[in-house]
Design a protein that fits this description.
This protein has 14 helices and twelve strands. It is α+β, with helices and mostly antiparallel strands. Among the domains are: 34 residues, no CATH class; 169 residues, Peroxisomal Thiolase, Chain A, domain 1, CATH 3.40.47. Strands 1, 2, 3, 4, 5, 8, 9, 10, 11 and 12 form a ten-stranded mixed sheet that branches.
Length: 423
């Protein structure tokens, strides 16, 4: 099966260090945090001019409608480059890369893709009823409307106090994931072990220089702030449940969940000609195929990616063992473990996805070798680009023909998965 009319490649891009919520990067807005990334990436090209820019952010702002264009212009780069915004919750920038891949050709050879989130600075909005009331007052009597502004109460505001709860259910992703963890029997011990390993791998990656050419230092911070090289299983076990705090059965904690994070990340989507324009210093991998999935919330808010993985592997007659590298987004340790548990459960793929095949043993030892979102952080819009860039560099060091799967779950019961090859 051939997805594209011509070969499409992903090339590792650059990102900021990822900062803790309320920490070193809290003074940036989404545009300001993205500008250094696109400026640095433009320098990777001989003429500094891509053919197109796609960028995304998940937490909206009334200050702009097309953040991609705002970033590009604020970066003082060639204003004749078209730029537009893409969004799909936590899968925003991986999905943007799929959209970009479909636009390669006809003279479009180099597309800069990325995303950003400044989770430290979520906007505070007004309820629809309050907006309607104030709008009517301003139309009738501006002075009375201004006086009404001073009389607003907390009930008039939409405050970001529930961890960006799902609009339909009114529950956070953590609330939903607690339910899924119980359904799949994902223990607290297994979650803490995965979180510990994520920190250990990310710390080793930083110490070994893996991230040096993927991360641009900022004046406030030079390395990812969330990575805890000194964490222990004992420290993780001491943390109290963060979502289910009353039943005595809660297993998700601040330690085994991805943290509130600020950061921006980019990558390149290129043709064979665009690959040559980037030069030999930028690692690349062929984008073989991709898959989006959407499921009913009843099957788990963050459980769409196993469906996408099964379909993608089946389309190419691949088994788990044929994939040399797995980069699976860690929204929560429980989510990653439940995603894999579904893939491994006898009969689940046949029943849920309609594919009657044995995909073999899942190779946990090949997952996230340089750490994942629990340790590195999860700025919603930036995570997909970070995952893809990291994967491309890891895959480029493997033998030719090696394949990788990149999987990112998303709020709303959706997920995005890519199949890459070192080619």
């Amino acid at each position: 099966m051939k997805r594209f009319q011509q070969d499409v490649y992903l090339a590792s891009g650059l990102r900021t260090p990822f900062g803790r919520g309320g920490g070193a990067l809290a003074g940036y807005d989404a545009i300001g945090l993205s500008v250094p990334v696109v400026q640095a990436m433009a320098k990777q090209m001989s003429n500094g001019r891509p053919d197109l820019v796609l960028w995304g952010t998940v937490i909206p702002s009334l200050g702009w409608s097309n953040i991609a264009r705002e970033i590009w212009l604020d970066a003082k780069l060639d204003p004749t480059v078209p730029s537009f915004t893409a969004i799909l919750a936590c899968a925003t920038s991986i999905t943007a890369s799929f959209a970009a891949a479909g636009m390669i050709g006809g003279g479009t050879d180099v597309i800069l893709v990325g995303g950003v989130e400044t989770m430290s600075r979520p906007p505070i909005g007004l309820t629809t009823a309050t907006v309607d009331r104030l709008r009517a007052l301003f139309a009738q009597d501006p002075a009375e409307a201004l006086a009404a502004l001073g009389q607003l109460t907390p009930a008039d505001f939409v405050l970001p106090v529930k961890g960006w709860a799902n609009r339909i259910t009114g529950r956070t992703m953590g609330d939903h994931m607690e339910e899924t963890a119980k359904q799949w029997g994902i223990t607290r011990e297994a979650q803490d072990q995965w979180a510990y390993d994520s920190h250990r791998r990310a710390a080793a990656g930083w110490d070994g220089g893996f991230f040096d050419d993927l991360v641009i230092p900022l004046p406030e911070i030079a390395r990812d702030a969330n990575v805890r090289a000194d964490t222990t299983l004992e420290k993780l076990a001491s943390l109290k449940p963060a979502f289910d705090r009353t039943s005595g059965k809660g297993t998700l904690t601040a330690g085994n969940s991805s943290p509130i994070t600020d950061g921006a990340a980019g990558l390149w989507v290129v043709s064979a000609e665009g690959r040559r324009r980037l030069g030999t210093n930028v690692p690349t991998a062929k984008l073989i195929d991709h898959e989006l999935a959407a499921i009913d919330f009843a099957d788990g808010l963050l459980m769409a990616t196993p469906y996408a993985i099964a379909r993608l592997l089946n389309r190419h007659s691949l088994r788990f063992e044929d994939i040399a590298l797995w980069e699976i987004h860690e929204a929560f340790a429980a989510q990653l473990l439940a995603n894999v548990a579904a893939l491994e459960k006898p009969g689940w793929i046949s029943e849920k996805v309609g594919i009657a095949r044995d995909f073999g043993r899942f190779p946990f030892e090949r997952v996230n070798p340089n750490g994942g979102s629990i340790a590195i952080g999860h700025p919603f819009g930036a995570t997909g680009a970070r995952d893809l860039s990291q994967t491309v560099k890891e895959l480029a060091a493997m033998p030719k023909g090696s394949k990788a799967i990149v999987s990112v779950c998303a709020d709303g019961g959706e997920g995005a998965v890519a199949l890459l090859e070192n080619s």
